[in-house]
Amino acid sequence: MTSRYERISAESVEAVAGMTAGLASTIAVHPLDIIKTRMQLDTSPNPLLNSTRSVFGDILRNEGPTRIRALYRGLSPNLLGNSAGWGLYFLWYKQGQDLVRKTRGYSREQKLTNVDYLMASAGAGGLSAVLTNPIWVVKTRMISTSSATEGAYPSMIYGFKSIWQTEGIRGYFHGLIPALFGVTHGALYFLAYENIKIWQRARNGKDELSNTDTSIAATLSKVFAGTATYPSQVVRSRLQSYDPALKVQRKSLGVVRIMRDLWRNEGALGFYKGLIPNLARVIPSTCVTFLVYENTRWALPRIFNDGMAEAKTAL
């Protein structure tokens, strides 16, 4: 009977907390993700602040069948990608830290160095980026086109099937190179996040942080990492886009060619198209993600393990 009441593992806690956080944050800010992607794919040399309002207004006026459905087009792959991505990331990030401790012979009380955090984060980010890239290809193609556009993907499953039929397995990995470069985002983020939490604990004189402290740490870290690595998102979106009229990927120019054309035709600001809605998206998204993550990670062992202990005692 005891096998029914085994304690929940630390890895399971990390995975469930990450998936829950990813789901909550994605639903909260999905419309801003659509605006950001549309701006990233706009090749006109518009100023950085010129398009946010017009893109939002255009979606509300011209796409449907209702405004809510227009603002939440592509939600399914976004939910799947973020829940799976965050779940895998937090799972492997925790395992990466454990591996670093074991490899370096650290004691359980010994703190990891900045390099240790970077190694754990980069490894977790690289693995999750490869496994979730097919989801992001479908998501990019759905949210970059209106549902009324001829040849646009009507659903996530249709998108997966269409890519397989027209582009083969390689089609699922468009944009993987800038996505892997974007792993530095996660590494920079967690480097900043862990250090800000250490500073907050020292300032507060206690180990547990409040929700406000967690939100501040998450927001500052996200703004820092997001701004530093944002150009890779623009390049990735352009690699993953496709021509809905032809139902195939747009002519692939490669990472170097896209970066060169961006610089020549749109200037330095071209690499930061969509940054404003992205920051408007990631700040509340990050706060929601890490509040849900930290609180789920705190509550889950207490709910599950304490409940199991009571049930075991009753037997």
UniProtKB/TrEMBL annotation:
Keywords: Membrane, Mitochondrion, Mitochondrion inner membrane, Repeat, Transmembrane, Transmembrane helix, Transport. Coiled coil: none annotated. Pfam families: Mito_carr. Solcar repeats lie at residues 9-99, 112-199, 209-299. SUPFAM superfamilies: Mitochondrial carrier (SSF103506). Gene3D superfamilies: Mitochondrial carrier domain. It is a multi-pass membrane protein. The chain crosses the membrane at residues 117-137, 172-193. It is found in: Mitochondrion inner membrane. Its main location: mitochondrion. InterPro entries: MCP, MCP_dom_sf, MCP_transmembrane, SLC25A32-like. Belongs to the mitochondrial carrier (TC 2.A.29) family. This is Mitochondrial FAD carrier protein flx1. It comes from Knufia obscura.
